[in-house]
Amino acid sequence: MRRSIAIVCAFLSAALVTAPTASAGTTGDDHPNAAAAGVDEVAQATKFRTALGFDASVGTVRTAAVDRTAFPDLTFGVPLTTAEAAEVLRRNQVALDMGVAVQTLSADPTWAGAWLDHLSGGMPVFQFAGDITGKSAAIESLLPAGVAFRVDSVQRSLSDLDRTKSSVWDAIDVLRAKGIDLTAVGIDTPRNRLRIGVLSLGNDAATVLTGMYGPDTEVFQQDYGTADACPVNGCLPIKAGIGTTDAAGNLPCTVGYLAKRYDTTPDQLIAITAGHCIKLGNKTSPWTHGTSDIGIASTKGAGTYVQAYYNNSTADVGAFRTNSLSDANRRTRNLVLYSTSGTTADITGYEAQSTQVVGAVVCRTARATGVLCGNVQDTSVDEYSVVWQDTTCTTKLYNYLIQDSVEYSIDGIGGDSGAPVYSVTLPYPYDRYKATMYGTHFDSPCGTAWHSNWSGWYSSIDHGISRLEASFPGLDIAMCSSAACGLPDPIGD
Rounded to two decimals, what is the model's pTM? Predict the structure, then answer.
């Protein structure tokens, strides 16, 4: 149903660090449990290793699943050798280091995007339309010393592809009249082409769309994205990646991260999750984590709830305030749960969507599917998001277009909505993982079963915050990136 874009990177000549090893297993339903959610761990490991250019043979994957001595590291949700885990951490840092270059080069009218070529060892690739003379020198000055990279000449600039992408939506009525229903429109950066998802490949959809937008356009069958809000759990104190439900227990979601509201007196500590969770959940009673009340829907004005799930929104995010919690259970504000054994990493900041690159390795900690890792596939895709009346996916409750989302190679199921998507690195002194936030998960293709070859979508952190602040004038939000965020306690209601 979906193709995976391969990830690339240059291997370390030696393991620069010895990554702390995440312990296997779980401690019960207090923590995300991928196996309990039906995740095929062998398929996930095969997919992850293949995408990174690691040995993904049947024998290696099966050995890795049981040999904790040779494959001790579970940092990325699949068994890796210590050297492999160190290499993924290195590539993650390379993806972050590309940010300044990507931001600067995007002003060039011939700019055609950047990505990580994992089949070439994680090589950063910078693309331009037409002549690339002199580009390498400019890029070298924007990267840390010694980072190898490649510059490719392609046919179309990113701005040209963006204009074409917009024109597809302009033709939506014409296409519907032909029996062609769009579900997503994005850009395949490595292949320098448009990607168009359709509900069905019938009615000559591929022929019609390639005739309209060029023979290299990728046309693929894809169902509407489905809001992943159904069943799950977590562990206090509150942090990114723990599960929550509304007071009635009928809308399980996941906490994406904690943030501070500066427009209230005193400041409020809030939790960001998916907007459709706040829109559909109980608004007057506390959200819960297990049996603990952890917050109530955040408001801006009388009875106006802070969420951005509506048609043509640029993010699917919402917030609840954490005043139901004791101060002890919200003392540390910048943690993300990144292993099924309860291990945490420190959130130190976020990567703006404009500097995220295709191929970047990201992980997600979610209530239903636990910790899974994959790679960014499309950094700007307009995705139809549907909230269904029931699990049969036949009656639509809401059908909204969420613009400018990010697609990544991790499927989700009910309960994963709002989950943090992040990249982990291990900077000196190599004693504790650091997490750079990429976004919050909101959608996957419809279905109650998890699929290793399906994708998911997330709203970037900066788009989510800016969308909320634009939707609610006067709202002032900042993601927590330090343990002292919101201190001193008590923080306000």
Answer: 0.88
As given in the structure block, the two tokens for residue 362 are 């990201």
Q: Is 173 helix (H, G, I), strand (E, B) or coil?
A: helix
**What SS3 class is residue 158?**
helix
Q: Report how far residue 292's alpha carbon sits from residue 286's, in angstroms, rounded to the nearest whole number.
A: 9
**pLDDT digits 0-9 by tens, 433-478:** 999 999 999 999 887 789 999 999 999 999 999 999 999 999 999 9
| Alpha carbon distance 458, 362 (integer Å) | 11
Quick check: 458 and 440 in contact, CB under 8 A? yes
CB 347 within 8 A of CB 233: no
Between CA 404 and CA 382 the distance in angstroms is 5
Residue 41's H or E segment, with its range, is helix 41-52
**3-class SS of residue 66:** helix
Q: Which residue has the tokens 């597809």?
A: 168
**413, 420 in Cβ contact below 8 A?**
no
Q: Which residues of the chain have pLDDT under 50?
A: 1-36, 230-234, 493
SS3 at position 306:
coil
Q: How far apart are the C-alpha atoms of 380 and 383, rounded to whole Å?
A: 9
